[in-house]
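Memo to structure team: turn this sequence into structure tokens by end of day. - J.P.
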Amino acid sequence: MKTIITSIVSVLIVCSISLSQPTLEVVWQKRLYPTKVDFAKFSKDGNYIYCAVGNTIKKMDSKTGDFISTFDNVDSSFIYIVDRMQISNSGNFIVAHNGNGAAFVYDTRNERKVKQIQLGASAVTLSTDDRFLIFGSSRPESKGIVVYNLMNDTIERVINYQHNGINQIKISHDGRYFVTGSTVKNYDNTFNDQLILWDAVTMQQISVLESINTGTTFGGFNKLVFSIDDKYLGSVRRKPWEVIIHNLVSKERIKKSDGRSCVNIEYLPDSTSYMLSYIPAEIYDINTDKLIEIMNKYMGRTASSYSSRQLFVQNGDSIFLYTMKPTTSVAEEITNTFTLSPNPATDYIEVAIPTLKRGLGGVAPVVRVYDVLGKEVLNTSMSFLRKQESPVNTDEIPGQAGNDSSIIRLDVSHLPPGVYFVQSGNMVQSFVKM
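Reply from structure team:
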């Protein structure tokens, strides 16, 4: 046991996590009960959020969170639900399916359903020029991928390939690729989750990114999402709930969630980070995969607006709107490093942080301590020039002129044994409480 603890401590001591700190700040939050938003997409300019509610689409003002209109279904007799909704790159059209083989096209400009196509659609997306509907089909005559011409209402092409259900399909932002997430039944009655990258011009397979055997359990994919530069692809599997990230340049898997249940991935609107929906959610740097921030809550279904730098989150019957603002305070910018001791700790830890010049007012950054679930267990914000009573105490120590350091002592004797994370400004370090 001592050897194991020593190994863990050695790893944690050297694994400080550099932060670029894109902060998600709550703009508003609402409880919609009994209304429930199943899917959501931002308008092109970020001013509105189109929400799939039951068998229709409602338009929401992103500034207030209020519904301001409801789309006209024209004929709702076959619209049981609005499932797996996607919005075109132009923002002019929304596509979805009804869970029973019908694909729908809505025009966001007149807020009206303009097409209903009964061709066994199981997942649907739209080409970047708004001309073609691309969807998965399980019908014998069109089993595979159907390319449907919206201009003349004809089937342009059918790409046949063996599957037992295409549950997700997504086209890249630049329109060069699309990806399918499907389930394939094997000869021994086991199943494989299959993730395939396709060329959107030639309609040829580029690479089978994943083919994972799920035994006799029917699995599938719950979400596919491209990063804004189309360099990365995130996918969410159902059996088990996990996230896999691929680099589409190398066509290689570069990350998989760590074994905890993870039901969502969202590339955030700062274009440099992504969020994994553990409980609670965690934010990572898109290029280094380093942990940036541990959120204080679970994040369910999400949608990002790159134009307005906003994130919409739906958890059950509650909805939230976040805006993404980089850290800009002088106090946080100067705190780009700190030391932490002792590690492991029993009664206290000392955090040594570079102070500000006296002419800047001696304002201290916030020091936060989190447990492994992301719950904040200590939080302090104080002046470097003022001593505090226990559990937080500060003492100035001499350093270089205009760049002194302060030691903040935190009482951790009351914390249960385990691993904890200390965040100050744009750095995070971990320690073990014995």
